[in-house]
Amino acid sequence: MNLIEDIELVLGALIASLFGQGGGVLYTPIQLWNGSDFHKAAPISLFLIVVTSFTATIVYRKSNKVDWVLALLFEVPTTLGAYLGGFASHFISSTALRFILSGLLLISAYFLFYPPKENQRKLLNPKLGYWIIHHKKKGLNYLIDIRLMFPIMFVVGALTGMIGIGGGILKVPIMLIIFNIPMSIAVGSSAFMVGITAAGGLLGHLTHGNFDWHSALILVIPVTIGALAGSLISVKLRSARLIKYFGAFLFLLAILMAGQTFFKIT
Question: Considering its fold, how many domains does the chain have in total?
């Protein structure tokens, strides 16, 4: 871990938070760009996500936008998937992990360009049954189909735990499109959920000893400051156009990473 990489990670946290995404989506790519091995970069990224996620949760909790019941319910399969993904990553080549990361960055870029709407058609059977949970938050009602939620969130957890990203960019669209959860609740709850998922993924990586405690602890304070600064600035500057700019940045990052990996193996 060098000074330039430290600065880049802090700026990554600030820039990503500026666009309302948190730094998790950039921590792993920045480390890879500076020559870190994927199996070392992913757990450090997850550790930083845990810290910054719970910091963000404090802000959302004050505005009563965290649905604790919803978050804990979703995190059962997600955290299990994240742990297994983190554990399995040890047996997957860095090349394959780079391609998976590039693919998820492209998906993230897509949702930044075309954010889902709250009035998407429900994919649930409105009739309550054994597998359907009726939940209510701040006067808003929504249904959660366990048959859909468990496998979908398990896969999300496995992928994010494997490659060391927060996963909020995937969780929020899923909660909006599939489960019709209100935007404010989805975003606020996701801020808490990504920390739980990252903790599960980190535990999976720790089983193989793939974690540089020294580098991770050095980065905690500056990265947290960067994430908080970005969040505060975003209150005044965030706009649809700025978010699309960040989407374009993630798209280019994904293409560059995929291209770099492809030419290394050819």
Answer: 1
Closest C-alpha among 188, 199, 183 to residue 61: 188
* Per-residue pLDDT reduced to its tens digit, 148-165: 899 999 999 999 999 988
DSSP code, position 5 = H
Q: Where are the alpha helices (DSSP H) in the chain?
A: 3-18, 24-33, 38-62, 68-88, 94-113, 146-163, 168-177, 183-206, 213-237, 240-265
- DSSP 8-state secondary structure symbol assigned to residue 133: E
* C-alpha–C-alpha distance, residues 245 and 223, integer Å: 22
For 35: left if phi > 0, alpha if psi spans -120 to 50, otherwise beta; the answer is left
8 A C-beta contact, residue 201 and residue 137: no
| CA within 13 Å, CB half, 217 | 3
| Cα angle for residues 159, 163, 168 (degrees, 5° grid) | 60
Sorting pLDDT into bands at 50, 70 and 90, what band is 118?
Answer: low
**Structural domain harbouring 55:** 41-214+242-265
Q: Which helix (H) or strand (E) holds 137?
A: strand 132-137
Report how far apart, in Å, the C-alpha atoms of 118 and of each of 136, 184, 186, 243 are. Answer: 16, 10, 10, 18
User: Is 253 within 8 Å of 31 (Cβ atoms)?
Assistant: no
> Could you tell me the pTM of the whole model?
0.82
pLDDT, tens digit, 9 for 90 and up, residues 139-152: 667 778 888 899 99
36 domain residue, yes or no: no
128 sits in the region (left: phi over 0; alpha: psi -120 to 50; else beta) called beta
